[in-house]
């Protein structure tokens, strides 16, 4: 494995910027032979020349231009690393954000947009997936913050409630149930769709079905909530879904959201991050996410009464 030194990379970028080995040596406070040695070692490691010389001037050749592009990225990442570790704030550099599909479909673009306006130099790495999987990734330090549905508990993790996402049986207007109420009897002749277990939605559906005394439950599954919503909208079957991801279709009358004698408990949407990673920047992101959800009106506020009633 070839190894390159930071000094070699800095010499490359200095010469490219200033146009000569001599000027680069002055800026770096070293001798010109030292700069020449560093570039020669880098060229030997890369197996190619990087500069064309004309007297004292030095001009990048085609390979040198490519090398400088990557060298600039390396130096930028090292600057981010230094700032991130010095400040302890993940909003200085690259922020690794996980999001449940419920949040991603409904409001994640708006959250990321507002975050970019507030922190224009921030880079965001998004991971969208199952809340259980994202929680594991957070615990393994693969994420800085995750926006989850019903996150449960994880040691050394701060969980901040954001909003509620109502859940209901839904179908296409073209393939409705015979009544406005969903119960096992009216559902038994339909193709039932849901995300697979383990997931909060699958748990709600199976628990409700058992409490309502339904017959053997036959479920077709899809691991993508977005695709599942499209299947329901296309009339393939009836599904248990958060109403926020099909809110526009419900308002247009294309999707029917059914009432139930025993309603589903809403999904509690929370932000979670490791306690040791707390910063004002992360609190700012949590605040942005909460505001976007409630302003969208696709989610419901989490009130004290709801918490007291067992929605935790």
Portion of residues within helices: 40-55%
* Number of helices, counting only DSSP H or I runs of 4 residues or more: 13
Structure classification: alpha/beta
* Integer count of domains: 3
Report the CATH C-level class of the largest domain.
Alpha Beta
Estimated share of beta-strand residues? 15-25%
Order of strands side by side in the largest beta sheet?
4-3-5-12-6
Mean pLDDT over all positions: 86
Q: CATH homologous superfamily of the largest domain - what is it?
A: Periplasmic binding protein-like II
> How would you sum up the global shape?
elongated
- H/E topology pattern: HHHEEHEHHEHEEEHEHEHEHEEHH
Report a brief summary of the structure.
This protein has about 300 residues and is α/β, with parallel strands linked by helices. The chain is about 45% helix and about 20% strand.
Description of the structure:
- With 312 residues, this protein is of the alpha/beta class.
- The protein has 3 domains: 6-87, Arc Repressor Mutant, subunit A (Orthogonal Bundle); 94-163 and 267-308, D-Maltodextrin-Binding Protein, domain 2 (3-Layer(aba) Sandwich); 167-257, Periplasmic binding protein-like II (D-Maltodextrin-Binding Protein, domain 2, 3-Layer(aba) Sandwich), CATH 3.40.190.
- Helix content is 45%, strand content 21%.
- The chain has helices at 6-18, 21-28, 32-46, 62-87, 101-106, 108-118, 131-139, 184-187, 200-211, 225-233, 247-252, 280-296, 304-308; strands at 51-54, 57-60, 94-100, 123-129, 145-149, 157-165, 167-172, 192-194, 219-221, 238-242, 255-257, 267-274.
- Helix 1 (6-18) crosses helix 2 (21-28) and helix 6 (108-118) packs across helix 12.
- It is elongated, with a radius of gyration of 27 Å.
- Mean pLDDT is 86; it is low at 304-312.
């Amino acid at each position: 494995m070839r190894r390159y030194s930071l000094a070699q990379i800095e010499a490359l970028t200095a010469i490219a910027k200033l146009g000569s080995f001599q000027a680069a040596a002055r800026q770096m406070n070293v001798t010109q032979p030292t700069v020449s040695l560093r570039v020669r070692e880098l060229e030997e490691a890369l197996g190619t020349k990087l500069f064309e010389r004309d007297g004292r001037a030095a001009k990048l050749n085609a390979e040198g231009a490519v090398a400088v592009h990557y060298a600039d990225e390396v130096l930028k990442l090292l600057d981010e690393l230094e700032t991130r570790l010095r400040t302890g704030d993940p909003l200085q550099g690259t922020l690794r954000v996980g999001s449940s599909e419920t949040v991603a479909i409904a409001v994640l673009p708006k959250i990321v947009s507002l975050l970019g306006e507030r922190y224009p130099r921030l880079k965001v790495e998004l991971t969208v997936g199952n809340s259980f999987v994202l929680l594991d990734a957070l615990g393994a330090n693969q994420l800085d913050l995750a926006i989850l549905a019903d996150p449960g508990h994880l040691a050394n993790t701060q969980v901040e409630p954001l909003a509620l996402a109502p859940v209901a049986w839904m179908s296409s207007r073209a393939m409705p149930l015979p009544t406005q109420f969903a119960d096992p009897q009216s559902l038994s002749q339909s193709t039932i769709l849901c995300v697979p277990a383990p997931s909060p939605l699958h748990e709600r559906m199976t628990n409700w079905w058992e409490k309502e005394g339904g017959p053997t439950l036959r479920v077709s599954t899809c691991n993508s909530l977005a695709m599942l919503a499209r299947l329901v909208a296309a009339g393939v079957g009836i599904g248990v879904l958060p109403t926020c991801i099909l809110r526009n279709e419900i308002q247009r009358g294309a999707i029917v959201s059914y009432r139930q004698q025993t309603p589903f408990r809403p999904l509690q949407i929370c932000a979670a991050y490791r306690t040791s990673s707390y910063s004002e920047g992360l609190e700012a992101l949590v605040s942005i996410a909460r505001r976007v959800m409630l302003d969208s009106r696709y989610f419901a506020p989490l009130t004290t009464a709801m918490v007291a009633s067992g929605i935790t």
